[in-house]
């Protein structure tokens, strides 16, 4: 019995499928329910602050930001500290107008070494500012084929 298990282990080491992967070179397979970086639709957001009140880590603050890149008019929008975010999705579930949604972006373009770079402003959440994450994640997500 012991010899049989040793032979099986040696076979798996050399001929079996790999059980680990190199991250981020080999992307993770994402399910349809995966919750990545939030995306903000400014036209739907009313600045009510329910997302900030439901966030268990207080990662969301309501700040004043421009309505659009070309407008000088300002309204209240959520700003998310991704460094403290659990990606639990409570802010998305509680948003009354579905202004917040989840994207498949989770790794590329988000990982940064300075905490101040992890503060995603409303412009970044609305993708009005290029965060390079969508472009990089799009390539990454496109490599994944659903099962």
From TrEMBL:
A GO molecular function term, named singly, is:
4 iron, 4 sulfur cluster binding
- Protein name, please? Dehydrogenase
User: Could you tell me which residue ranges the 4Fe-4S ferredoxin-type domain spans?
Assistant: 36-65, 76-105
Q: Which GO terms describe its cellular component?
A: membrane
GO biological process terms, semicolon-separated = aerobic respiration
Native source organism of the sequence = Methanolobus chelungpuianus
Q: Which UniProt keywords apply?
A: 4Fe-4S, Iron, Iron-sulfur, Metal-binding, Repeat
Instruction: Please provide an example of a Pfam family that matches this protein in its UniProt record.
Output: Fer4_7
């Amino acid at each position: 019995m012991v010899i049989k298990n040793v032979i099986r282990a040696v076979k798996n080491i050399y001929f079996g499928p790999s059980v680990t992967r190199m991250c981020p070179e080999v992307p993770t397979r994402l399910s349809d329910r995966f919750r990545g970086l939030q995306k903000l639709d400014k036209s739907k957001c009313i600045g009510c602050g329910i997302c900030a009140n439901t966030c268990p880590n207080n990662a969301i603050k309501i700040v004043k930001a421009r309505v659009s890149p070309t407008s000088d008019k300002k309204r209240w929008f959520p700003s998310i500290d991704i460094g403290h975010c659990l990606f639990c999705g409570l802010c998305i579930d509680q948003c009354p107008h579905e202004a917040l949604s989840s994207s498949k972006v989770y790794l590329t373009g988000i990982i940064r070494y300075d905490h101040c770079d992890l503060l995603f402003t409303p412009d970044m959440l609305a993708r009005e500012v290029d965060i390079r994450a969508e472009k990089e994640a799009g390539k990454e997500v496109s490599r994944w084929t659903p099962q």
